Amino acid sequence: MNVNERNSLQENIAQAIEEMKEEAGRKNDPYFKVNLAELARRTGISRKKLRNLKKNGFVVKPNGNAGRHKKNHVLSGFTNYIDNLLRRSMTNSVVIFKRLVDLGYAGCKTQVKKYIKDHKDLVPIPRATVAPQGDRARRYRTGPGEVYQMDWGFVNVERGNGTVYRAACFTMICHHCGRRYIEFFPNAMQENLFIGMIHAFQRLGVPKYVLTDNMKSVVNGRDSDGMPVWNHEYETFMTDIGFNTKLCLPRHPYTKGCVERLVRVVKGNFVAGRAFANYTILNKEALTWCDEQDSICHQGNDFVPEQQHSKYCMQNVSVLTLTESLRKYLAPVRKISWDGFVCYEGRRFGVPYTYKSKFCRVMRDGFTLSIYSYDMKELLVTHDVTWSRADSFCEEQFPEQPEEFPTAPVKASMHEEPAPAHGNAFGRFNFDTED
Question: Got the DSSP string for 49-74?
Answer without folding.
Answer: HHHHHHHTTS-----TTTT---SS-T
